[in-house]
Write a structure and sequence with these properties.
It is a single chain. The protein folds into two domains: about 120 residues, 3-Layer(aba) Sandwich (Rossmann fold), CATH 3.40.50.2300; about 100 residues, OB fold (Dihydrolipoamide Acetyltransferase, E2P) (Beta Barrel), CATH 2.40.50.1020. It is about 30% helix and about 30% strand. The protein contains six helices and 15 strands. The strands form four sheets. The protein has a five-stranded parallel β-sheet, with helices on both faces. Strands 10-9-8-12-11 form a five-stranded antiparallel β-sheet, with helices on one face. Strands 13-14-15 form a three-stranded antiparallel β-sheet, covered by helices on one side. A hairpin with a 2-residue loop joins strand 6 and strand 7. About 25% of the residues are buried. The mean pLDDT is about 85.
C-alpha cells in the first residue's frame, strides 16, 4: 500500500476540519496510507516544518502572521518535490500559485470531487520516477532522491550534502559527482549545485532558492549558463 505524508494549514477551524475529513475520505477510497498533520496556525506549521517530510500540502493563502504563499516558498526551498495545493475564498490570488509552482488552486467552498481529482494528480506526479542517491553516513545507509538535494560542498576530506537536512560524509567530491545526473552542475572545485535550485546567476555569484549565495571562479559563468539553457 502506498503511503503519503500530507499537511493542511487553515486558520478557519471549520474549514480545516472539513478538508481533513475529505482527505481521509479520499485516502480510504484510494486505498492509500495517509499520515496527516493539521495546523490552524501558520506560525506553528512553520515551527514544525523542519521536522516534517511532506508529500502534499494544502494551504490557505490568507492567514494572519504568515501567509500561505510565504509558507509555500519555505516548503519548496526545503523540498522541491512537495506538491502544494492552495485553498482560498478569493480568486484574485490564483496567479500567485505560479511563483511557487503550486499544483493547483481550489476555491472555497472546496468541492469534494474536485479535491479528489487534484489529490489524484498530486500522487501521480509524486509517482514519477525519482533517481536515488545512496551513501553511507556513519553506520547508516542513506537513500536520497536526487531532487531532494539542493547543493553539495566539500571542505578538506569531508563533503556536506544539503538536502532536507545536512549530511557530512568522508568522501571526495569527484566520487560523488559521478553518481549525479545532468540536473546538477559543478560550479567550482568545491561545489555542485542542483540546476532547479538556481534563481539568479551573475558572472561572480550564484543565488539559490534557499537563500544560499555561492561565489563563482573566473570562467564558470558560461558553463553554468549553458547548463541552465540546456535544461529549459
Amino acid at each position: 500500500m502506498s503511503s503519503y505524508k500530507i499537511a493542511l494549514c487553515d486558520d478557519d477551524k471549520l474549514e480545516l476540519d472539513y478538508l481533513t475529513d475529505l482527505v481521509r475520505k479520499w485516502g480510504h477510497r484510494k486505498n492509500v496510507s495517509i499520515t496527516l498533520e493539521a495546523f490552524q496556525n501558520s506560525s506553528s506549521f512553520l515551527f514544525a516544518l523542519s521536522d516534517l517530510e511532506l508529500d502534499i500540502v494544502l494551504l490557505d493563502i490568507e492567514m494572519p502572521e504568515i501567509s500561505g504563499l510565504e509558507l509555500a516558498e519555505k516548503i519548496k526551498a526545503r523540498n522541491d518535490h512537495t506538491q502544494i495545493i492552495f485553498v482560498s475564498g478569493y480568486s484574485e490570488y490564483i496567479s500567485f500559485g505560479y511563483d511557487v509552482e503550486a499544483l493547483h488552486y481550489l476555491l472555497k467552498p472546496v468541492d469534494e470531487l474536485k479535491l479528489f481529482e487534484v489529490l489524484d494528480k498530486a500522487i501521480a506526479k509524486l509517482g514519477q520516477k525519482r533517481t536515488n542517491f545512496v551513501f553511507k553516513d556513519g553506520s547508516e545507509m542513506i537513500i536520497l532522491a536526487l531532487d531532494e538535494i539542493r547543493y553539495i560542498s566539500v571542505s578538506g576530506n569531508y563533503t556536506t550534502i544539503y538536502a532536507t537536512k545536512e549530511y557530512l560524509i568522508k568522501s571526495p567530491l569527484s566520487l560523488i559527482e559521478h553518481k549525479l545526473d545532468d540536473s546538477f552542475v559543478k560550479v567550482s572545485r568545491s561545489e555542485i549545485v542542483a540546476l532547479r535550485q538556481i534563481t539568479k546567476l551573475t558572472h561572480t555569484l550564484l543565488y539559490l532558492k534557499d537563500g544560499t549565495i555561492i561565489g563563482l571562479p573566473r570562467g564558470a559563468y558560461e558553463k553554468i549558463n549553458r547548463a541552465i539553457i540546456e535544461r529549459i
